[in-house]
Amino acid sequence: MPKFITMGYGDRQGYDRRPAPTREAAHARDAELQKAGAVMGIAGKPVQVRNTEGSGTATAQGPFMSSPLPVAGFAIVDAASLDEAIKMVSGCPCAVAHGVIEVWPLET
């Protein structure tokens, strides 16, 4: 089955603006996805890694990408199609709490 990488963006302010039942339903959706085999986690502090033309490893603290919202977490989900993956994550916390979730097909 195809795999999809998801990246959730959101902040505490947007999360706190949602009513408690909405937040609880979103976390229940996360739990359902995990029970179905999705690998999920909260985003830690990123490190950029470069090894330009094999000249040696260089690292830099912080994200390479920029966004108006911080990265909140990641998941790997199995879905039959992109549409199914989108449907799967549309009820998750970042999607319902004034954030956004990107869904990336993992092409192997």
Low-confidence spans: pLDDT under 50, at least 5 residues? none
Terminal CA distance: 12 Å
**Tell me, what's the shape?**
globular
Number of strands: 6
Describe it for me?
- There is one protein chain.
- The protein is globular, with a radius of gyration of 16 Å.
- It has a four-stranded antiparallel beta sheet with strand order 2-5-1-6.
- It is built from four helices and six strands; from the N terminus they run E-H-H-E-E-E-E-H-H-E.
- The longest helix is centred in the N-terminal third of the chain and has 16 residues, at 20-35.
- It has a single domain (3-106), classed as Dimeric alpha+beta barrel (Alpha-Beta Plaits).
- The chain has helices spanning 12-17, 20-35, 82-89, 93-96; strands at residues 3-9, 39-42, 47-50, 58-61, 71-78, 100-106.
- By secondary structure, the protein is an alpha+beta fold.
Question: How does the SSE layout of this entry go?
Answer:
Blueprint: E1 3-9, H1 12-17, H2 20-35, E2 39-42, E3 47-50, E4 58-61, E5 71-78, H3 82-89, H4 93-96, E6 100-106
Antiparallel strand pairs: 1-5, 1-6, 2-5, 3-4
Key phrases:
single chain, 108 residues, Alpha-Beta Plaits, four-stranded antiparallel β-sheet, two-stranded antiparallel ribbon, 6 strands, 31% strand
Briefly characterize the structure:
The protein is globular and about 50 Å long. It is an alpha+beta fold and 108 residues long.
